[in-house]
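In the previous chapter we treated chains in isolation. Here, by contrast, the input contains two separate entities that must be folded as one system, with a combined length of 928 residues.
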Amino acid sequence: MPRTIFIVEDDPDQRQNCADALRRRGYAVAAYASRAEALRAFAETKPDLAILDIMLGDEIDGGFDLCRELLAVRPDLPVIFLTSRVDDIDRISGLRLGAWDYQAKPVSLAFLAERVGSLFRILDLKGAAQTNERKCLRAGDLEIDEERMQVTWRGQPIELTYTEFNVLLEIVRNRAGRGASYDDLARATRQGVVENNTINTHILHIRAKLRAADPGFDCIKSVYGFGYRWSCP
Amino acid sequence: MTRKRRGLGIASKLVLFSLTLLLIPWLGYRYLQEMQTFLLSGQEKAQLLAAQAVATALHDSEDLLEPHSAVPPLLRERGTLYAYPLPYPIQLDGYLTDWGNLTQHAVRFDTDDYVIVDGDNWTEIPSFELVLGTQADQLYALLRVHDNHLVYRHPGYSRLDTSDHLRLTLLNDDGALLRFVLVAEGPGSVSAYRVDEHWRYPLDAHPVPEIKGYLQENATGYDMELRLPRALLGPDQRLHLAVADVDDPHGRKVEYVIGSLHKQWPGQLNPLVKRSLELQKMLTAFDHSSARIWVIDRRRNILAAVGGAAEAQQSPANELSRLDGGPVDTALGGLPATERRHTGDGKGETILAAQPVFAGDAVVGAVVIEQGADEILSLQRHTFERITRTTLLVLLLSVAGVLLFASRLAWRIRHLSAETAAAIDPGGRVVRTMLRAEHNANDDLGELSRSISDMLARLQRYTRFLENVPRTLRHEINNPLNVISTSLQNLADELPQTSNSRYMQSAERGVARLGRIVQSLTEAASLEEALRNDERQVFDLDALVRDYVTSCTHQYPQRRFSYQRPATDILIEGADARIEQLLDKLVENAVDFTPPEGGIQVRLDECNGCARLSISNDGPALPEHIRRQSFDSMVSVRESGQSDKPHLGMGLYVARTIAEHHGGRLEAANREDGTGAVFTVYLPLAQVRTQEESL
């Protein structure tokens, strides 16, 4: 039985394109234009994932409200925001509501599909027994479980978004040489157009989360004019 | 943000302007001058009228003005003697001091006036000078005789003509001639004898007691003073004086006789003119203490004078000199005239008015009135002082008032100006739309203040709108962009043969480029907000720049990068990622303008409390007009199509914003030799460093 994905997007073209791309990859897609429509459908079906736009018609924060309502009913529902609103404040609000990821338009459908794919894979792994041997990447006190997209620092789990996870992974993977260049990192975010500044913002968030666990954390160094480097062993 | 005032302030201008009030005293002075002229001419007219009144009263009183009408006119004209009124009796002592300066008005008689001459081999020019004066009922005479051989009377001779002597002829009451000889036996008293018609023997044995005289020798001859009662002169008031000279003390013969009348009238007598009591009485009716009134005859002899209390003390000679000149001449010519004169001491001014007196058609004399203009002048002076005081006070008050008003006005304007300037922060944001200054004022400034508040409110709305433009734009563009982008991807998935099409690739590049434009717009727009949320830390700028330049040499292998390090570490406080972003923008800009194989020099040093980072590149110089604007958004000097990247001039704007956020500034200049452009960032050093130094 294919996974069911809810898409709530007021723009019919984007809704159609997104739905088509996901359907082509074998998912069942139910697309809605408004919050009310989505809520009604939600009462009857049980989607495995919701991709929400924030602005829904006249409702400026319609997506946020919808997310809150959906999670109230099903706290374990993975939600991805797909929006043209890229201000930090929106990004943070979205993630605080419990969303898995926050994607800025314009989006690459291939990347979106890949993201959806890895999300389901992680869900599967979480659901499966712990028998599988973990495939872990270690860098000093940092442990990255690529399969489950889980990061721990000195044993403490660090909650990163999908993008942040990929950025951190890229830096750690390139720790042997000069570091990860901005271009490498831009690719790792799996988004269309990424400025250096956006990367810097992600790094700031990653550092902030790690420092919340360990105030002395200082392993991600800037290589000015180039990118970032993992400086711990 | 304060600007230098270019010209004079309002206060200075108003004060300068109020100086025109100084014109008021000047105008007052002019007015007074005219007033004075007017008053003086009024007084002239009044004096002329008064003179005319006197002259009219004297009209046809020829006998008063011309008492000797029986005498032939020519003789009258040339032979009249005038007896000056004397203020006090003369001491008969041979000293001339009591005559005062009347001696200057002495009449001189010489060879033209001889009576008898014996022989013509004169060794000297015979002459004598005569002054007559009256006091009370006495007539005085002073004779100054030139005689180098004085011969006194010898008591042994009974003849009186055997020594130097004086011959006096009078007409008595009956019209008979009385002859007197005055002789002296030495310096001192002179005796007068009535004599026969040959001037030889005395008719009486004793001298006449009424006639007294005194002789005093001097260097050139002798002076003789005489006194006789006026009653002796009789009604005709005529007399004749002659000096007889004897030079040989042995022969004792009269050498010559010089008389007081021209030789053409032998045996005649001089008419004597003196102050006329009748006229004097008449004039008293016109007496006025401040004015002096004279009646003069045709020969300028003063017949009567009244008034002028102060002037009465003056000597008769002084009075005479005052009658000289202009108006008196004119009046004697038959026409009234006036003249203004400065008094002798130069302080005051007097007005002289003269009117002719007619007898029939002939002018027989003149009435002259002199009055001081001091009253008018002192009135003018007082008025002038009063006006000056008043205007100075008014001037002072108005200048003070203007100053106060202007200062207050200037203060209000400055206050308003300061608040207006403070309403917009250095970043151009409107921080306050309601000015407190002058808000409740009812005058023009209040109006201005309210207008400014209004304007600021509008400006704020406009600024907000502008600030929201990129955000709105991004949202509005991103959605259709996403439609295109996702449609292209779906198209490529659905029709795999299109995915490698040139058109598909162009479309994807276009979409990517649009995406970048929107992103950079957003970046610039949200930069300031983002900067405020940055975490700041102290870091070594040198290390950052060193790393950065090293990265650049890899990233842009076609450009030659060089870095000149500072002597010491340079610690600044800020967000390193932002400084990196700033460098990104400046280096991108430099790379774009540098030709392949061109050089880019980065240099960092310390400058008096700040860090100076300059990036200099080979290439074209910046046009002057761009130099100042290139940090504002949307200004770009790049030619379109030169590069794939979108160029909206956001780069330098971002760089400037970051520099300013760190308390520094960005400057653009050209290399002095014009071979390229130099962008210099100034950043303040971290405070930590100075604290360490102070420790």
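The radius of gyration of chain A is 18 Å. Helices of chain A lie at 12-24, 35-44, 62-73, 88-96, 109-127, 162-173, 182-189, 196-213. Compare these points with the single-chain example from earlier in the chapter.
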